[in-house]
Each structure stands twice: as C-alpha cells, then as structure tokens.
Design brief:
The complex is a heterodimer of chains A (about 550) and B (about 350). In chain A, about 70% of the residues lie in helices and about 0% in strands. Chain A is mainly α and about 550 residues long. In chain A, α1 (about 1-35) runs antiparallel to α11 and α3 packs across α12 (about 280-305). Residues about 540-545 of chain A have low confidence and may be disordered. Chain B has 13 helices and 11 strands. In chain B, strands 1, 2, 3, 4, 5, 6, 7, 8, 9, 10 and 11 form an 11-stranded mixed β-sheet that branches. The longest helix of chain B has 20 residues, at about 330-350. Chain B starts with a helix and ends with a helix. The chains are: A mainly alpha (about 550), B alpha/beta (about 350). Chain B: InterPro entries: ThiB-like (IPR005948). Chain B: This is Thiamine transport system substrate-binding protein. Chain B: One of its GO terms (molecular function) is thiamine binding.
Chain lengths: ~550, ~350
C-alpha cells in the first residue's frame, strides 16, 4: 500500500498549485505564443524564426543578459554584508532598517525613475557624473530594487545557521576570513544561489527601470516584447522573444538547481544569537551604511519633493490625498486607492502563501526514486516560470483565453490579486524551500512511527521551523502585491484602482499639484510598506524559531 | 511592543476589511442586471465625473460599466485580439494614429447617426461605414517656458527648424516615438513637415542635443523647467492645453505652445462588432458626443470637445490656444508605414 501512497500524496499536494498555474499562466501565455505561430489561422513558423535572425534581436538579448548578470553580481555583493549586519548583529533600530530596506521593492518604477533622474539628471547633485541615460543608471536602478531580495533571503538562512562549525574552525586556528570562506560561505550557498537566481530573473525581466532610467537607447527582451505586443502588434516577433525568454529561464533554473544542493539536514543546528557589533565587523557595517545611503538618496529626494509646494515647505500635497486631485485627475481619492491596495494585497498574500506552501511541501518531501526526483525538479522550476514572462503577454493572454465558460474570468475581480500572487509565488517558494530542505526527514519518520498522521507530522515537525520564513515570505508577497504595477495596469478596473495605478495617473498629468500628490502618495506607499514590514518582523515568535 | 504591532496589523487588515476576494457586490450587480448594462472598454486616461455617468444611466436606462486599462495603443491591440468575442459593447480612445488598424481588422460596426454640429469635421478619412464617431481632440505641440527665455534674454523658438538652431542647443526634451503616443505624434509632425527628408531633420535635432525620455511624464515632470520636478530644459513636447496648467496666479501663464509644431490627435468611440448590447452601445456613443460629456472633457481628460459651441473652462478659454492649421498625415499612410518609420527613427536617434 505504501508504495503508491507516497507518490499520490505528493501529487495531491502539488495538484492545486499546478492547476492554478496551468489556468492562469500556461493557458494565457501559450495562447499568445500560439497567435504568433498561427498569425492568420495558418501555421507559419517561418516568421517567428525570421525574428530570431534579426540583428536587433541579438543586441536586445545580449544587453538583457549582461545588464542582468552584472546587476545580480552587484546586488549579491552589496547584499551579503548587509545580510550579515542585519541578521547576525544586534543593535538598536535593526528591525527598522530591515523594514526600510524593503521599501524600494514596492515603489512604482516611474516614481523611482523620476527620483533617480532628479539625482543623476543634468541639474541634480550627481549630474556631474553624466550617468543619466547610461547603462550605469540602469544598473543602479536594478540594484536599488533588488538588494532587499538578497538581504532577506540570505539573511534568513544566515540567522538560522548552525554556529558551531564556525566556532570549531576558529578554535582550530582559522582566521575570520578562512572561517568565512571555508565554513560560512559554503553553507550559505543554497540561499545565495536561490536569491541570485531570483534577482537575475527580476533584473532580466525588469521593464520600468530599463525604460525610465536608460532613456530609450537600450532595449531588453522584456521592453521589446512589450513594444512588439502593445505598440506594433507584431505577434510573431513577440512570440519569438517570449520563447527565447522562457528557454533562458528554464536553462538558468536548471543550472541554479544544480548549484543549490542543500546542506546535510541530519545535523542538529545551534543557531548563534545575534551579538553586539565588534571592531572586526567594521567593514560590513560601513558597507551596510553605504548601501543605506544609496537606497535612501532617491527616497529622500522623494520625501523632500513631496513636502514642497512651489519653493516653500508645505503639507498641502498630503492634505490633497483625500481629494481627487486638481482638475479631477482621479476618480477616487488616493486614500481610497490605498484601501483598495491593502485589500488586494491581503488577498494576494494569502493566495501566494497557500499556493507557495503547498508547492514547497511537495517539492521538499524526500523523493525516493529517480523518477520521483525528476518530477520534483520539474515542479520546482515550473513555479518559477511566471518570473520569466512579460506582463503584456500574460495580460493579453488572459483576454484571449479566459473568455468562455467555464473559464470566463476576464472581468473577474479575482484576476488582479491572482496575477499579483503569481508574481510573488516564486519569491515565496524560494524562501520556503531552502528551509524545508534543511529539515531532517528522520524527524518526520520519527513522528510517523510515533503514530502521527501526515498532517500532524507537518504541524509538529515542519511548521515550527517554517514559521519564521513563512512570515518573511508573507512580507515579500504583501510588498510585491502593494507595489505591483505591470500586470495590475493591464487588469485593474476603473472603479477600483490600486495605489501604484493612481500614482501613475497623477504623474502622467500636468499641474504641479498632481505631481506633488504623486510624490506624497509614493511616500505613503513607502511608509505603509515599511510599517507593515516592521509589524510583521515584530510578530515573529522567537521561541518557535529554534528547533 | 508585540501587542502594539498586533493592534497595528489588525488595524491594517481591518481597513482592508480582510478582503477574501474583492467586494462581492460587483458580481451580484452583474448577474442582476445582465442585459441592462453597457460595457465601455477604454484606456487608463478615461475619466468621467460621477454626475455625468449618472446622467447617462438616467437618460438611457442602462447601467454604465467602465473597463479602463493601458494606453491607446494597447487598447487598440486588445480590441483586435478580442474581436471575435469583445470584452464590451463600446470602445472609446482609439485615436487617429491607431484607427486604421482597428478598421482593417473589422473591430467596429458601422453606425450612421446625426451628430452635433462640428463633430463630423473630425471624421476619420476612409471610414466609409462611419464605424468611428469623433469624441474629442487635442494637439501635440512643442511647449516653451516663457519665463526662462525672458530671464535668459533669448527669444524663444517658434518653428520646427528653430529646434535645430545652435541657439537652442541642449534645451529640448521630448518623449520617444517608440514608447509614447505624443512622441509618435511628433514624429508624424516631422514627416508631414519634412517629407522624405525627415530622418535628416531628426539627425540634426539629436546633434543639437535633444533629450529623449521614455514617456511624457519623464520629459514634462522630470526635465522641463516648468514641470513638477527640478528640470533644466525650457523646451518640451506636450499638448496645446498644457499652458492652461501653468497659470501663474497673476493673470498669466508661464508657458506657451508653439502652434506651428502641432499634430492633431482625435479620439473616437465606436460600437464593437458582436456587442452584447448594441442598442445600449449606440446610446452611449450618442451620449459621448452630447453636451454633458463634451463640456466635461477639458477638466476630466485634458482634451478639447469636438461639438461646436461647447463652453470651455476659464483657464482653457484664456490660455489653451489651438492651432489653426496643424500638420496632418493620412491615416492610411500611417497604418501602412508606421513600423518602417519607427524602425528608421530608432536607427537615426540611437545611431
């Protein structure tokens, strides 16, 4: 009996998320790609192949790969010291800093673009560097948005790492540098690879940053797909690039999967308590400080701008948030849009958490046979795919595939939170999987042999360890949903716009008041995120974190 | 501390009323009033005051449902992609640079009707079945910051050619033709004005230090000296209505539009082929050219009405001048050449 029960349980766990992803991702995306291959109802793959040989396609792909690659390296380089400082050291305001560093993640790119350009532009304080509209500006923007991903993911793993091997190495005479290179780094590797692969995907598919900060000189695969789809209606071209993007994502995931092999979970861990900073931590502290300055600069620009009306200091921009803007720029006051955003984010969070948890549980069971392991690998990669697809492809795909019963969902209020949940899902999965992987399966076996059912085993073995990362993941999901703009702009319905959609509208209309309100609304979005994050951090229950 | 956070979180979720999927009432309304509603598909810039929407519902007896997303380009493409099973009854917001594509694909159904005086002046050339009814118009024009030029003691530019004059080196900022609709309109202006020599004009323009941004917001709000931010460039590509938004409070405005550099954008509404409620759709198209909507257009959507005799808001009447003889390009020619022009434009400007 037990021989078939395991696979059935595993498939059962994965069934719901697979079905959801199938309907809301695979179906729409393949629908759009199919339109490219069958432009007028006849199969004509020639056009698609043609696109691949255009010199422009080569340039676009190359730019995407190198810019995302360099940005990922930079994000890891600045993220590692910060992860150490914020998760291993104990100092006042540590949690506040952690929450603040997640803020960039939710800001609408158009606002960040304007803030960055006020810094780097011709008249800005950094204008003399001449960086405006260069790849350097793009890289800075990508790192600004993604450093938090590295800090959070690596930090969580660093925090729960067993301190004793490092202590043993030190006791045996290893220098701090040797300890870091031979003990700490190898055990952080799964988390770093996880974070880096997610960051790479975010960078490679980032849309607003490349457009806003790079002037119009640079095109990535993502911006190219967007232009081909929404502007030129060149569906074969868009299909070709979408396939390139998907193939690249699959290859990347396969490589990352190999590098991600987890540490032996059968070792009992004694995580180190955060300690006071010492003199030897100076380097990391300085690096973290610099990162904070880098992240704070555009945010301060935003804040200062939001507090000015004309050349005078004023709170009028904030007072105006309860109105619909000058010249009726908006249908609903900004405050109402904020409520809509929070509501949507709650929905997106529980959706991505429940889906992500099921996926993570299914993927991290000990898979016995080779076939089982292969299925596991496929499943693992499958849920990362939404990162590698353009919002334009998905948005149009929804329209052409979800249009007839039983899937007549085009106008469903479900679509916005669900699209946001899909965006957050890879982050959730990537945060949970390394932790679950680190649980010794013998604990589950012990629970089972003591008479615990599968559910009870999960509750007593997995859940206590999972609690912290689950909270971290929910923070990610909530933040990702609050700031999500691409898919939302395609789907958001007129009467219930979210905050980023409203900010985009405000900034897109003349009138100094509307611009000031857009800045004020961005600050509100940033502060809301920081407060929710800080609250979530506080709610962590320390006793449950230790095994 | 922990309890405070718990309270905070609870508050946050309470304001969000812990939504488990939307507001719910939408669904009920949808089923209760099926057949009695008109669905308007439009772009994200569409706004109508509540009282105007209420007026439509009262006059026609239909409930108005608005689905707004994307820009004019993505709206058109969305309509083309869903033409066999449209997402609504009426579409508003397809403009004269995208209209040909929609007509070729048979997205709209012909609707012959009498429109208020002045509306038919804006009819689309080549639209024989009268599938598209003009609703509003606006011009994309180069704008200048008059106060800047006054302070510097330089005469502001007036024509397209002035923009390539070294006097105005590094002063012009404009959104890209590839990523923004005013940008595309300006490309068409130069094509209308310069004929086949337009790539040379653009080469000169770029040599003279013109700055391209991805969208209107980045150019106007970020780089223009009279935008919301701290820009440094006193010449920007914007609209003929923009000077009405830079009123200085002392009876004047700080910017003006160069009326020799304008291209007219007309936005149309049309009944979608295969609409579930064609009767309601026609009522809505009539209503959009009616007095309530026409009067609300400047304040709500920053565009001019097409019906003659519609009163303009005070600032508009004083400061928003419309060109008498804007540049034009035949819509059919736009449809045929748009992609080639854009490719060529990209080559010239990124060279």
């Amino acid at each position: 009996m037990t021989t078939w029960r395991r696979p059935v349980t595993l498939i059962g766990l994965a069934l719901v998320p697979v079905a959801v992803l199938g309907v809301f991702f695979v179906l729409p995306v393949s629908g759009m790609v199919a339109r490219g291959f069958w432009p007028d109802g006849d199969f004509a793959p020639g056009e698609v192949l043609d696109v691949l040989t255009r010199p422009r396609t080569g340039r676009v792909v190359w730019f995407t790969v190198w810019s995302a690659g360099v940005a990922t390296l930079l994000a890891v380089a600045v993220g590692l010291p910060a992860a150490y400082v914020l998760h291993r050291l104990d100092f006042p305001l540590r949690r506040a800093v952690r929450a603040a560093l997640l803020v960039p993640f939710v800001l609408p790119t158009v606002v960040v673009g304007v803030a960055f350009r006020q810094l780097l532009g011709e008249a800005g304080p950094l204008g003399f560097l001449g960086l405006d509209g260069t790849p350097v500006a793009i890289l800075a923007g990508l790192v600004f948005f993604n450093a938090a991903v590295v800090i959070r993911a690596v930090g969580a793993s660093w925090e729960s790492m067993d301190a004793r091997p490092a202590e043993a190495a030190a006791a045996l005479g290893a220098s701090p540098r040797q300890v870091f290179l031979t003990v700490t780094l190898p055990s952080l590797r799964p988390a770093i690879v996880s974070a880096a692969s997610v960051v790479f995907l975010f960078c490679a598919t980032s849309f607003g940053v490349v457009l806003t900060l790079g002037g119009t000189q640079y095109s990535s695969v993502e911006t190219e797909i967007y232009l081909l789809t929404t502007d030129l209606l060149d569906l074969p071209g868009a299909a070709a690039l979408s396939i390139v993007q998907l193939v690249a994502v699959v290859v990347l995931l396969a490589i990352a999967g190999r590098l991600r092999a987890s540490a032996d979970p059968s070792i009992v861990r004694v995580p180190a308590r955060p300690r006071r900073p010492r003199r030897s931590d100076l380097g990391q502290l300085v690096a973290t400080g610099l990162l904070l300055v880098f992240v704070a600069a555009p945010l301060v620009t935003l804040l200062v701008g939001s507090l000015q009306v004309g050349d005078a200091w004023s709170l009028d921009n904030y007072r105006a948030l309860t109105t619909t803007g000058s010249q009726q720029a908006l249908l609903v006051p900004v405050t109402e849009a904020l409520a809509t955003s929070l509501r949507t984010a709650v929905d997106a969070t529980w959706m991505s958490l429940s889906l992500g948890l099921l996926v993570a549980l299914a993927v991290t069971r000990r898979w016995r046979s080779r076939a089982e392991r292969r299925i596991r690998g496929l499943l693992d990669g499958f849920f990362m795919l939404p990162l590698g697809v353009s919002a334009a492809t998905l948005g149009f795909g929804f329209l052409i595939t979800l249009d007839s019963p039983p899937l007549d969902l085009r106008d469903s209020p479900l679509l916005v939170p669900l699209a946001q949940a899909l965006v957050a899902l890879p982050l959730v999965v990537r945060t949970l999987v390394p932790v679950l992987d680190g649980i010794d399966d013998r604990q589950r076996q012990a629970a089972a042999s003591l008479g615990a059912g599968p559910l009870r085993a999960v509750m007593t073995v997995d859940l206590p360890v999972l609690w912290k990362p689950l909270v971290a993941a929910s923070g990610f999901a909530f933040a990702a949903s609050l700031g999500e703009f691409g898919a939302t702009a395609f789907l958001a319905r007129d009467d219930h716009p979210t905050l980023p959609v409203v900010i985009f509208r405000l900034i897109g209309h003349p009138g100094a008041m509307n611009y000031g309100m857009a800045l004020a609304a961005s600050v509100v979005l940033a502060v809301t995120t920081a407060v929710v994050m800080a609250a979530v951090e506080r709610l962590r229950v320390p006793s449950l974190g230790a095994i | 501390m922990k309890s405070i956070s718990a309270v905070l979180l609870t508050c946050a979720f309470a304001t969000a009323s812990c939504s488990l999927i939307g507001t719910g009432d939408d669904e009920e309304q949808a089923t209760a009033k099926a057949g009695s509603e008109v669905v308007l598909v439009t772009h994200e810039s569409f706004v109508l005051p509540d009282e105007v929407r209420a007026a439509f519902e009262e006059q026609s007896g239909f409930e108005l449902v608005v689905r707004a997303s994307g820009d004019a380009g993505s709206l058109t493409n969305k309509l083309v992609l869903t033409k066999d099973d449209p997402t609504g009854d009426v579409a508003f917001g397809v403009d004269n640079t995208f209209a040909s594509r929609a007509l070729e694909e048979g997205v709209f159904e012909g609707y012959e009707h009498t429109t208020p005086a002045g509306v038919s002046d804006f009819d689309l050339d080549g639209d024989d079945e009268h599938a598209l009814t003009p609703v509003d118009n606006g011009n994309v024009c180069v704008n200048v910051d008059d106060t800047w030029f006054e302070t510097e003691g330089i005469a502001p530019p007036e024509t397209l050619d002035d923009l390539t004059d070294p006097t105005y080196e590094d002063l012009f900022v404009l959104p890209s033709a590839a990523t923004s609709s005013p940008g595309l309109a300006f490309l068409l202006t130069t094509i209308a004005a310069k004929g086949d020599a337009w790539p040379d004009f653009w080469a000169d323009l770029m040599d003279n230090g013109a700055l391209l941004t991805s969208g209107w917001s980045e150019a106007y709000q970020g780089d223009f000296t009279q935008g919301g931010g701290k820009g440094t460039r006193p010449i920007v590509l914007s609209y003929d209505s923009s000077p009405a938004f830079t009123v200085d409070g002392e009876g004047g405005t700080t910017t003006s539009a160069l009326l020799d550099t304008c291209f007219t954008q007309v936005e149309y509404a049309g009944v979608l082929a295969g609409a579930a409620n064609p009767e309601g759709a026609r009522a809505l198209v009539d209503f959009l050219t009616g007095p309530e909507v026409q009067a609300a257009l400047p304040d709500s959507m920053y565009v001019f009405p097409v019906a003659e005799g519609t009163a303009l808001p005070e600032d508009w009447a004083t400061f928003a001048q419309q060109p008498t003889d804007p540049w034009e390009v035949d819509p059919a020619e736009v449809a045929a050449n748009r992609d080639d022009w854009l490719t060529q434009w990209r080559d010239v400007t990124t060279g």
